[in-house]
Write a structure and sequence with these properties.
The structure holds two protein chains of two kinds. Chain A is built from eight helices and no strands. Chain A is mainly α. By secondary structure, chain B is α+β, with helices and mostly antiparallel strands. Among the domains of chain B are: 35 residues, no CATH class; 111 residues, Immunoglobulin-like (Sandwich). Helices cover 24% and strands 30% of the residues of chain B. In chain B, the strands form two sheets. In chain B, strands 4, 6, 7, 8, 10 and 11 form a six-stranded mixed sheet that branches. The chains are: A mainly alpha, B alpha+beta. At the A-B interface, α1, α2 and α3 of A face α1 and α3 of B.
């Protein structure tokens, strides 16, 4: 739930996400469900919430209530907050978005992301480059 | 709180795992990194317990709409009707056991004619002492059939007529006549075979005492 809260910056939505996840998981519970699995499942559900326009607008309006990110890992010298995540959610596909969250919200290294997502480190590097390009493009659009 | 990690930050996932099971590598990093130590402290201080979901009243059993049971019932009835049509035992013919189908001859229908005191009764099914009986067969006109008449009663089988080979036709009379006696029903059967050989067939009619 801490992860959902970090991502959504809203406790109530995080509770809803985790409740819904466990409601789905409990009937088919297996000992294979571990913390990394739950992390990924929560990420996907948060992504769906962020992609929903109505939810995104509400989260952005409420983000002042949420705890400020600790921001140990920055993207182009920018702490990845709700506004940036919500904007990138509309510009990146699911694969790139998962990498974005793992790197800049969960503060994972590229090796950890590769293990978590079952991809090569090279692929993770390429996706991070694409994410950075997207952020640069966003800044350019904002400047113009 | 400083947000700058001294080295590579420990991911939140590793910190969560470290909060459950201590990891010496993480401990070593935390000893020198205030930012990551703050994150772990945040995890430990958080102690989130998911709020319990409100207890929901058990839904009252709904009265089923008529169509919820009518639809399966109709489907079941339809399936049963199809099963009856498809699986019903096929009658050998409209006449019952008085028909035999013989390879090389075709369909053979057996009937009997009773003569009583000069009166002829077609398809009679009762007998008295003194009645005389003849057997007639109907089979496809372009065929020939080998015939042997058998009369079955509870005491055994009697063959009152010599075997005959006849051209088929409509109600062809088997040569000869015989009497039926006793107090039990008798079955008058004709064993039919093709003169060319092959499996024979049997067709019978039952006559009962009056």
């Amino acid at each position: 739930m801490r992860k959902a809260q970090r991502l959504l910056r809203n406790r109530d939505d995080a509770v809803d996400i985790v409740h819904a996840l466990f409601v789905d998981l409990i009937p088919k519970w297996s000992p294979d469900v571990d913390l990394p699995y739950l992390y990924r499942a929560v990420t996907n559900r948060c992504l769906n919430a962020l992609r929903d326009h109505a939810t995104r607008a509400r989260l952005l309006a409420q983000q002042g209530d949420a705890a400020a990110p600790l921001g140990r890992v920055r993207l182009e010298d920018e702490v990845v907050g709700s506004a940036l995540i919500a904007t990138l959610a509309q510009r990146l596909d699911e694969g790139h978005f998962e990498v974005l969250i793992a790197r800049f919200v969960d503060d994972m290294t590229q090796d950890e992301i590769a293990v978590q997502l079952g991809l090569s480190r090279k692929t993770i590097g390429k996706r991070l480059d694409r994410i950075r390009d997207e952020v640069v493009a966003l800044r350019a659009e904002a400047a113009s | 709180m400083s947000a700058t990690c001294v080295d590579t930050p420990i991911s939140w996932l590793r910190l969560e795992q470290h909060a459950i099971v201590r990891d010496p590598d993480v401990d070593a990093h935390l000893a020198t990194c205030e930012a990551c130590r703050a994150c772990l402290d945040a995890i430990r201080a958080d102690g989130i317990v998911l709020p319990a979901l409100p207890a929901l009243p058990a839904p009252a059993p709904k009265k089923r709409a008529w169509w919820t049971w009518a639809a399966p019932a109709l489907a079941l009835a339809g399936a049963a009707a199809i099963a009856i049509v498809v699986l019903r035992p096929r009658p050998r013919d409209e006449h019952g056991e008085d028909v035999a189908r013989v390879k090389g001859v075709g369909e053979v229908i057996v009937d009997v004619v009773r003569e009583r005191g000069g009166a002829i009764a077609e398809s009679a099914r009762t007998f008295r002492p003194g009645d005389r009986w003849k057997v007639v067969v109907t089979c496809p006109p372009d065929a020939r059939a080998s015939l042997e008449v058998e009369v079955h009663d509870p005491h055994g089988i009697d063959r009152p007529l010599p075997p005959a080979q006849l051209p088929c036709g409509n109600r062809v009379v088997v040569p000869g006549a015989f009497e039926i006696t006793g107090r039990d029903p008798n079955r008058v059967c004709v064993r039919v075979a093709s003169p060319a050989g092959g499996a024979d067939g049997v067709a019978c009619v039952t006559v009962s005492p009056e």
